[in-house]
Amino acid sequence: MEKKKIVSIEDRIPKLKEARKKKANRRLIIYLFIFFLLIAVIVYLQSPLSHIKTINVNQNDVLSDEEIIKESGLKINTNIWMYKKGKTIKALETHPMIESATIHRSLPSTVEINIKEQKIIGFLKEKSAYHPVLKNGMIIREEDIPYKGEAPILQEFKDDDYLNHMASELDELPNDLFNLISEVSWKPTDKNKYNIELYMNDGFIVHSSMKDFAKKMKSYPSIVSQLDKEDKGIIHMDVGTYFEKIE
After folding, report:
1. Where are the domains of the chain?
2. Which of 65, 113, 180, 182 has the most crowded CB, counting CB atoms within 10 A?
3. Which of 87, 86, 66, 83 lies closest to 74 in space, CA to CA?
4. Which CATH number is correct for 50-117, 1.10.1610.10, 3.40.50.1390, 3.10.20.310, 3.40.50.150?
5. What angle do CA 175, 221, 213 make, to 5 degrees?
6. How far apart are CA 70 and CA 217, in angstroms?
7. pLDDT digits (tens, 9 = 90+) for 143-201
8. Element (H or E) spanning 39, and its range?
9. Residues forming a β-bridge with 122
10. 124 phi, psi to nearest 5 deg
């Protein structure tokens, strides 16, 4: 039988001491690393290195960068880790022109704000002012949003219910048709309170009704394609559809 090698306790003690020493040194190194890491984090958080230097606003067309930044509550030279993302998004989404918002940090010192604006379906003309009208019929009178011609002018709408109806119909239009409309005027009569008149960017005038307006307008390109380019007049699109030439 093979004899087992017997190691005396005196021989094992130095090896045990060496192993314990190495283990203690490793533990000390870990503790020192954590300690200095915490010190570095504290110094970083207290230094200008952790401050916001740039705030970028993306995907906004109507609202200015300055207005959105003001609404967010974010400020340059404040700590980039101290703002609450949920609170900032909630503050942005309380603005009537902002449908949704996202925000994230882009280290070391930039905050990115991404905006989805509410769709403006028209500008309500009141005296010399133009107020944006959203797809839900909301009129924004408090904000200074300039008219740029990107949506039709809405005139003579003195009843919110009819304005809401018109806004809903305009929102259903395809973009190519929506962009053809220059002006929409409410022209109620005793027989038809939904009567409207439109001025189109291609030079035609349309007389129609708010009821099923979006559905009726789908035939507009086909009607215009059958007219001579020199013809100008009124396209009636209500109970029946016909063209009235203006000499």
Report:
1. 9-46, 50-117, 120-245
2. 113
3. 83
4. 3.10.20.310
5. 65
6. 41
7. 667 777 789 999 999 999 999 999 999 999 999 999 999 999 999 999 899 999 999 99
8. helix 9-46
9. 133
10. -75, 125
